[in-house]
Design a protein that fits this description.
16% of the residues lie in helices and 62% in strands. With 165 residues, it is of the alpha+beta class. It has two domains: 30 residues; 128 residues, Sandwich (lipopolysaccharide transport protein A fold). The protein starts with a helix and ends with a strand.
């Protein structure tokens, strides 16, 4: 009789233990993302009129569906150059988020900020943080900007200017 009761106790405890393990596994979901790294990367971005952008970076890091390029240089078909410490590319929407020492250079224009978004399809750059713009000897400071590349124009919010004559 003692053997049967002991056996029932072990069966009951094992059922309780298995239910506890299932409960803990359900609580502690661990998501595993694959990570890949490539060095010296060049990407061509195409739009309605063919190649719109050339994107180059020192290193490409792919984590799940996210792509990050480090020490990035973007060159538009119009000749504009954009440099940044990194860019996070959204391949589905054809946009990117530039971060760290963002510089936009045109023929006679220089724009500097810390963060910006680039819409490759629309040829649009925009940011919400502090921005400095130099055109020749003129200097404009503001907070937030939108730069259209086709045709080229820059709209700066909350502007403060300095002009040299």
């Amino acid at each position: 009789m003692k053997a049967i009761l002991l056996h029932l106790l072990f069966v009951t405890l094992s059922v309780v233990y298995l239910a506890y393990v299932d409960f803990i596994q359900g609580k502690a979901k661990i998501e595993v993302k694959e990570k890949a790294i490539a060095k010296g990367v060049g990407i061509k971005v195409f739009g309605e009129r063919g190649q719109e952008w050339s994107v180059q970076g020192r290193e490409l890091v792919s984590v799940g569906r996210d792509l990050y390029l480090l020490e990035v240089l973007l060159v538009s078909a119009e000749g504009f150059k954009v440099r940044a410490d990194s860019i996070n590319l959204d391949r589905l929407r054809n946009v990117g988020r530039l971060k760290g020492n963002v510089e936009i250079r045109g023929e006679a224009l220089f724009v500097k900020t810390q963060e910006a978004q680039v819409d490759f399809k629309r040829g649009l750059l925009k940011g919400e943080g502090p921005v400095q713009v130099w055109k020749g000897t003129n200097y404009v400071e503001g907070k937030g900007f939108v730069a259209y590349l086709k045709p080229f124009r820059v709209i700066i919010s909350r502007v403060r200017t300095r002009h040299e004559i």
